[in-house]
User: Fold these one by one.
Assistant:
Number 1:
Amino acid sequence: MRVHAKPLGSYPFYLRPFFWNQRRKYGEVLQAALLWARAPKLFTAVAILFGMIDRRSSPIDAALRSLVTVRVSQVNTCSFCVDLNSATLIKRGVSLEKVEALETWRQSNLFDRREQAVLDYAEAMTRSDRQVEDEQVERLRCFFDDDGIVELTGLIAFQNMSSKFNSALGVPAQGFCKIPGIELSSPSR
């Protein structure tokens, strides 16, 4: 990592519940969280925002949210995010075959029209050599109302921020996804 975490006991007391929850959920504190927590108020805001984006009542189902986070992480070459989000994607019931095909989803027949529309939109938002086009938003309207499109856009924007932060600081994968073929490689173009 390009910046190192501080000793766990040196973070403010009010971050302890976040770290406790990560240990409970993942078995350890996330390295990325320890870096965000070097700026405690920023970390708190980011954690609250993530909680609002990844909530049960989201109009975007949990598996689709994870599909988006993995694909955005792949495009941004964030090994930590690909690792963690792939493990979450599998826990949310997506087949191993689909997870392995995600990087080349355009050439796969495993993704339905809704997933294709969402992944295309996510890539357009993520890649600096593309822009979102009206046709992409119109394809989303077949599956989401305006509120859903706003939520999806917020999710993609958040994952871009998160994966770019982690990639820039060189946060390594922590070994959450131990599936052959789920390795960070260069993003498909």
Number 2:
Amino acid sequence: MKFVVQRVSEASVSVDGEVLGQIGRGYMVLIGVGEGDTKADADKYLKKLIALRIFDDEAGKTNLSLADVGGSLLLISQFTLYANCKKGNRPSFFHAGDPQAAEELYEYICEEAAKQVPVVRKGVFGAHMQVSLINDGPFTVILEDL
């Protein structure tokens, strides 16, 4: 599993010109599900995501969590996080999870996140999406191999 976490001041996702999800301050998270990933993996990544302290406190130190700042989540599925570009110029996605299993885990992550974060928005699994964001910092963290 891989999460690319971007601290944002705002973010949105659209499909066919229709905005499906929009947040203010929070995290826009690209979620890649790999072969063999489980709900236990998803739980571990979600726990780490929600506990991350990457918002500035009053002293300007990255010391505050999503809950501390009343932040929101925009969760986007992205199998291309598993692109392997070692051979040739066309990426291979051999290690990306099976689409059906990946969709189930993505939906599970979204449902579990909504139990802990008041505002959770999401994209559409497998859809061609347009994601817009203002990365605050910029500040981007990659969670993998947890």
Number 3:
Amino acid sequence: MRLALSGGGTGGHVYPALSIAEALEHELRPGEKLEVLYVGSRGGAEAQLVERAGFPFRAISAAPIRGRLPWEMAANTVKIAAGARQARQVLRDFAPQVVLSTGGYASVPVALAARSRKVPLALYLPDLYPGWAVRAIARLAQRVAVTAIESLRRLPGGKSVVTGYPVREEFWQAHRAGGRERLGLDPEEKVLFVTGASQGAHSINKAVAANLSSLLQLCEVVHLCGHADEPWLQEIRGGLPDEQRGRYHLHAYMHDDTPWAMAAADLALCRSGASVIGELPAVGLPAILVPYPYAGGHQRLNARYLEKNGAAVVLDDSELGGLLPLVGELLHHEERLRAMREASRRLARPNAASRIARVLIELAGESQG
């Protein structure tokens, strides 16, 4: 079976596509081989993640489907048209039986190319709220999969199904004891996991740095800070007393160890990109979610979804000055943490990737029929 993947800009778009491809290999008939090509944007974050996963990658031109100014819209239209031409050539050469889109700028040219080449198109929406690109692609897609039922009213009826968020297989394998051993964490200490997603979050990093000594008296901290802020945070770490320095585990980013770090933690402090809807529940990790204030409201809706279901507390970016007392309150209220952990696990959907993989198989079969 030949599958073309498209989606990018952040790990929240890329990792679901890779997880679905991995699940698809297990869903195919014995002896049937899966061939995958990932089509993404030039200069996007997706190329490195895809190549790390071992799949071939082709880059095309891409841009937002709207702009704030008339000349921005005109320039974006030109880039999208160029990307669609490039994507048509890519699909002509690769000849996929089905295309899966997970949103992002590059997905629009690929969706247009799939439509013109009459290749079946499936869309998976990671976020709860569909942005402009996803809503445009949904009109072209034959099937649409969504993370939660709340998304259905914003998408075309009759072709949408609720599957949950497909996370990497490692999240279902990771566990607390193994994560603590793997990362060199104390088996009994409280652990705070901090991340701003693949690019880091400067405001979260500054808040952690401002309260670092006090935080380290409360717990060990595993901090994924992003490459841009790592140098100055390493300087701060170097100036800590020896005892505290050993409790502060600073990383620019993690790949394979991320599920284990999350499984090892008692509480997360993070942005609320699409991945939190799947990854936090997979390991049952309670969270303080800080929505990125310039994400068109998508992150706020993701955060409110987890908060409404009892799995998280939402803290506005402008309220990060109150971070320390909130972390202390949650870490030392074991009954509340336990309730949040159980609420989070109830949202987990272990079969999400397999369900979407079966949708792709059905679409591929229909195209051949």
Number 4:
Amino acid sequence: MLLPIVAYGDPILRTVCKDIDSGYPNLKVLIEDMWETMYYSNGVGLAAPQVNYDIRLFLVDSTQIFNNLDEDEKDKYSDGPGIRQVFINAHIKELDGQEWAYNEGCLSIPKIREDIVRNEKVTLEYVDENFQPTTTTFFGVTARVILHEYDHIEGKLFIDYLKPLKRKLLRGKLDDISRGKVSVDYKMSFPK
């Protein structure tokens, strides 16, 4: 089932989400719905607060990035072919590597893209959809997508990394999004 994407301005996007256990109601259905919603919305990641759940759950499919690279870009990122994975109760153990800029966007903040600087490596402790505990280090563009989604479960948005002047310049567009004055090809829910 397609779920509406929560728009910028909704308080849930600023909520630090809580860990869950394997008894969380209808978790399997929620994960399936999130995958369907993410693909329908042309996203490469989706976090639970973006579909109005305050839990530490997000999905990442960075294989789509690699599948859509031009031939001359194929060697640009060393973490190909990417991953398709569910992350539950994720917590960062370490950030490492050089910082690098990449043009990011967000389904909750449509029509806005900005260069965001992040670390090239992240070590994450999490459980998968079967609640198997794992600690893994991710790097490259996959780490970037993970860090973007991880920020969502910490109540942060990619625009928080922008300099104050840049955010001020975007204020009008952000206000329009929170008022529902934006046209997208997917279903959204806007703050009341």
